[in-house]
Specification:
single chain, 168 residues, five-stranded mixed β-sheet, 5 strands
């Protein structure tokens, strides 16, 4: 996946649910901090983006996640047209580490425009124990311009919080 595809995914998710903000979790969230040129190819090979809608409670978050996935999920016309899909997740289907809100990275530009036409606010957080696994971190560390010691340390730091997820 490339940065412009991530921005397209943000725009699409916001338009589907009529929101200005979404959170991207998982392996492709790294594109909010680093460009695909800074990363090894293996770190950007995924063709899906995990999107966490922002809502007042988890049942509403789950409803919005289902809506995103129903419109632009795996095997959808959206995926067939654009070559990537959106995977809607909620707070029960994704494992977020302690302090994840403080680590959010804001991505906002014309390519992430929300339904109002204003640039959407997009926040990213790597998901420990999920698609951004030790293997992805190992591959990223091998990239010449990327220093992932902090990210690797975060993964190790959260093993005690989510032992089942981090052992996958």
């Amino acid at each position: 996946m490339r940065r412009h595809q991530l921005e397209h995914a943000i725009r699409t998710a916001c338009q589907i649910i009529g929101a200005r903000e979404v959170i991207v979790v998982g392996s492709q969230s790294i594109l909010g901090t680093f460009t695909e040129e800074q990363l090894p190819a293996a770190a950007t090979m995924s063709i899906e983006v995990d999107i966490l809608p922002i809502a007042d409670d988890n049942p509403e978050t789950a409803r919005l996640a289902d809506l995103i996935e129903g419109v632009a999920g795996e095997l959808s016309p959206f995926e067939q047209l654009h070559g990537f899909s959106l995977d809607g997740v909620d707070l029960e289907t994704c494992v977020l580490p302690t302090g994840w809100r403080e680590r959010l990275v804001k991505v906002q530009n014309a390519n992430t425009a929300a339904p109002s036409g204003e640039p959407a606010v997009h926040r990213l957080v790597p998901r420990q124990g999920g698609p951004l696994r030790r293997e992805t971190l190992r591959l990223a560390r091998e990239g010449p311009e990327l220093r992932c010691r902090l990210a690797a340390g975060r993964t190790d730091r959260h093993q005690h919080d989510h032992p089942t997820a981090t052992s996958r």
